[in-house]
Amino acid sequence: MQPLNMDFSKRVVVDSNTLDWLSSPQKGVSRKPLARENQESGHATSIVRYQVGAHFSAHNHPMGEEIFVLEGTFSDDDGDYPQGTYIRNPPGSSHRPFSTDGCTLFVKLNQFDPKDMKRVRVDTNIQPWQPGVGGLKVMELHDFEGQHTALVKWSADEAFQSHRHFGGEEILVLCGQINDEHGSYPANTWMRSPHLSVHQPFVSRETIILVKVGHLPA
After folding, report:
1. How many angstroms separate the Cα of 71 from the Cα of each of 5, 39, 110, 188?
2. Which of 11, 20, 63, 112 is the most buried (most CB within 10 A)?
């Protein structure tokens, strides 16, 4: 497999609704690759689906793993994580993941700063929203040396000023639809904008996005 969307100087938009599910080496687990360095190693960002009862044997994550549970319940040695759970497994961690009833995940592999060793579990269903700019609400999920991950909730007809992203920006639209001067992006769209990119986002209906900023090459 050729590298996929690995030029971080380019803006990338992928509507994952239009992608086919691809089988993985693990029985019962399929994927929609969004960015990938190698076939089964290195930097990877994917939508991953576990069928009922699917499981992995114990394995390591040399450069970390980041997960957001989109549907169903994801489980590992430490517990069960329902839809809306944010998970960070630091570099060198290991686990034995499975899903009893099936689930769909947004997964980022091998993209941590080696010094970022914090293990994170956040159930966003019970975490309070904090006021953001204008009518936005924000739920902070993780912060490390200028890299920030959060949920952002937009009320209907909310607009944000034009702004520049130092260290880039990555968005997964969880519900609703976000727009900017470049286009419109429905739920399940993944976007990656490079260092110093500029846009002016707005929405017409309530929208929630998963956002990561400050983590791309400057």
Report:
1. 25, 25, 23, 12
2. 112
Q: How far is CA 216 from CA 6, 8, 71, 140, 160, in A?
A: 11, 7, 27, 19, 22
Q: How confident is the model at residue 59 (pLDDT cuts 50, 70, 90)?
A: confident
**CB contact set of 148 (below 8 Å; sequence gap of 6+):** 140, 142, 211, 212, 213, 214
- The answer to whether residue 99 scores a pLDDT higher than 80 is yes
Check whether 158 has a pLDDT greater than 70: yes
3-29 confidence digits (pLDDT tens): 999 999 999 999 999 999 999 989 999
For 189, half-sphere exposure in the C-beta direction (CA atoms, 13 angstrom radius) is 17
Angle at 11 between CA 87 and CA 108, to 5 degrees: 20
In the chain, what's the furthest Cα-to-Cα distance? 47
Residues 6 or more apart whose Cβ sits within 8 Å of residue 180: 199, 200, 201, 202
Say whether 17 sits in a helix, a strand or coil.
Answer: helix
The CA distances from residue 51 to 82, 94, 99, 105, in Å, are 15, 21, 7, 12
Q: In the prediction, which pLDDT does 40 show? A: 76
Sign, Cα dihedral of 32, 139, 10, 158 = positive
Instruction: Specify the amino acid at residue 165.
Output: H
Q: Are the beta carbons of 120 and 85 closer than 8 angstroms?
A: no
Please, what is the average pLDDT of the chain? Answer: 95
